[in-house]
User: What shape does this take?
Amino acid sequence: MQETLVEVSRVGAVATLALNRPQAMNAFTVDLHRELLACLNAVAHDTSVRCVVLTGNGRAFCSGQDLSDPAAQPGGDLGALIASHYKPLVERIRSLPVPVVAAVNGVAAGAGANLALVCDLVIAARSASFIQAFAKIGLLPDTGGTWLLPRLVGHARAAGLAMLGDKLSAPEAAAMGLIWQCVDDDALQDSAQALAARLATMPTQALVATRRALEQAQHMTLTEALDAEAREQTALGRHADFAEGVAAFRAKRAPVFTDR
Ligand code: T3D
Assistant: This one.
């Protein structure tokens, strides 16, 4: 029987996708890429899903590209592998119509580190770590690393992390603002589920518009960003969730958001 490379589970409106190649520290093969993308597409189209948690089975979150995979051997066309698998994966996560929480349960190395960092909120176990392992094998950060790192922690730290490839502990990552939160190991999955359940009750389209606006504002002037905020706000102002938010505020009750 074919091994399930991504385990999918559901609690309420939260779908959890767990990378499931623990024997290889959840390293990416072409098959894992295909299965993860299919799962992300499925949750994107399932309107009952309002938040996604991405995590790993076993002691790693993800160790990046599987270095024994025939598709990634020295001399091969690594750019083609990125174009056909890593780029679509990152773009799928960043365009998902619901927020995505990375629950980093162990080491996140190479593309695995940037897979986590591309998610909306990253929560990590205290014993987890982040390694921009690329330079150690003669590569540069991919899977969005060159774009993400300076935006998250500034140029000096981005260059240090990317060029040295040292292991950064989860507490250090939280302290430097690379990730949202670090929690005790045995609290990770419950904390990630609680965070996701909270996001699932929130106005989904506003959260996704926030992701989009934060990203787009990076290459805008302040005036352009103000205009973009006005455009997004005009659209959100016409959604049922805004009406519900205001009605709930006025009635001093909890809102029930339904737009997705
Ligand atoms: O196509 C392209 O290449 C372009 C795209 C590149 C994207 C990338 O992600 S490049 C970066 C690739 N990843 C790495 O370089 C990380 C390699 N792994 C490590 O540095 C270490 O394994 C870890 C720091 C992740 C964990 O270290 P440790 O000491 O906890 O465990 P370990 O003993 O090294 O690994 C445990 C097993 O997992 C081991 O297998 P074995 O000996 O028990 O049979 C090891 O070979 C395997 N493993 C870990 N990472 C990978 C892997 N096997 C294949 N590929 C891996 N990336």
About this structure: Residues 24-25, 27, 63-68, 72, 78, 81-82, 107, 109-111, 131, 133-134, 137, 139, 142 surround T3D (CB under 6 Å).
